[in-house]
Design brief:
CATH architecture: 3-Layer(aba) Sandwich
Radius of gyration: 17 Å
CATH superfamily: P-loop containing nucleotide triphosphate hydrolases
Helix content: 40-55%
Largest sheet: 5 strands, parallel
CATH topology: Rossmann fold
CATH class: Alpha Beta
Bound molecules: 2'-deoxycytidine-5'-monophosphate
Strand order of the largest sheet: 2-6-1-7-8
Number of helices: 10
Shape: globular
Order of helices and strands: HEHEHHEEEHHEHEHHEH
Structural class: alpha/beta
Distance between the termini: 31 Å
Number of domains: 1
Number of strands: 8
Length: 276
């Protein structure tokens, strides 16, 4: 795990398989288990990717996590799941029985847990106060509570600083990074030379999420769709499509096609030494 130097944060760890399931089901996208495997030719030496930041934004179920991880593998970049940092803080608050409907309580807690996020696309990790929370942060309870936590300005200030530091650390190490979330192209890394915004129809997003949560007997497509609509409303303030982002509608695309489009976009930008 890449230890974040500003480790006054806490977090959990999640395996590639768990993460894949959380964002984008393998059933919907058969290549999801081995993102990047379809692009063996797109494996340049890491040094070639030095300085490259790829911002991947989009709503839940748009496929951004699996696609972002696949791109990172294909281009040998690091990978940052910013949503996991909001989830980690939310898990910490819930596990302590904190009242997350009280903005004052949430704001005061923003910097208390020590969150550590890994940047290996093959095994992204997330820890809170040293505990692996990769599984718990994907629970429905956390999913349905995280938007309220992510809306608190103190939380965003704290976690965005952490996310920027992780990106800066990658660049300082001569690496590149794919960062995914809601506001990467607009707020976290507005200078990223490659920006994509993934979308998908509401129905397909709900189907993907339902497949991800197949182990939960209470979850039907209708339930997922209702929860998704609620989350979309709550997340709307945080989500912004950068004016210079390329929109990719993943509704009818294979995961391999989505990864291929983003890799091709990065290749096109490369001629300009990663400048826009
Ligand atoms: O991508 P995700 O579902 O794991 O994100 C979890 C929550 O965090 C979601 O409600 C939106 C929020 N989020 C955010 O506000 N900004 C980001 N960059 C990433 C996620």
């Amino acid at each position: 795990m890449t230890k974040h130097p500003a480790a006054e944060h806490s977090a959990a760890e999640h395996s590639a398989a768990e993460h894949s399931a959380a964002e984008h089901s393998a059933a919907e996208h058969p290549a999801a288990e081995h993102p990047g495997a379809e692009h063996p030719a797109a494996e340049p030496p890491a040094a070639e990717q030095s300085g490259l930041v790829i911002a991947v934004d989009g709503p839940a179920g748009s496929g951004k996590s699996t696609a972002a991880r696949g791109v990172a593998r294909a281009l040998r970049l690091r990978y940052l799941d910013t949503g996991s940092t909001y989830r980690a803080l939310t898990w910490w608050l819930l596990s302590r029985g904190q009242d997350i409907s009280d903005p004052g309580v949430v704001a005061a807690s923003a910097g208390r847990p020590v969150i550590e996020v890994g940047t290996d696309p093959d095994a992204p990790e997330i820890r809170v106060d040293g505990r692996d929370v990769a599984g718990p942060i994907r629970s429905r309870e956390v999913s349905n509570a995280v938007s309220a936590v992510a809306a608190i300005p103190e939380v965003r200030r704290h976690l965005i600083a952490m996310q920027r530091a992780i990106i800066a650390e990658a660049l300082a190490a001569g690496a590149g990074i794919v960062a995914e979330g809601r506001d990467i192209g607009t707020v976290v890394a507005p200078d990223a030379p490659v920006k994509v915004f993934l979308t998908a129809s509401e129905a397909v997003r709900a189907r993907r999420r339902t497949a991800d949560l197949a182990a939960d007997p209470d979850v039907t497509v209708a339930v997922t769709r209702a929860e998704q609509a609620q989350r979309d409303r709550s997340d709307a303030a945080q989500m912004a499509r950068a004016a210079d982002a390329v929109e990719i509608d993943t509704t009818a695309l294979d995961l391999a096609d989505v990864i291929g489009e983003i890799v091709a976009l990065a290749d096109r930008r490369k001629a300009g030494a990663w400048t826009t």
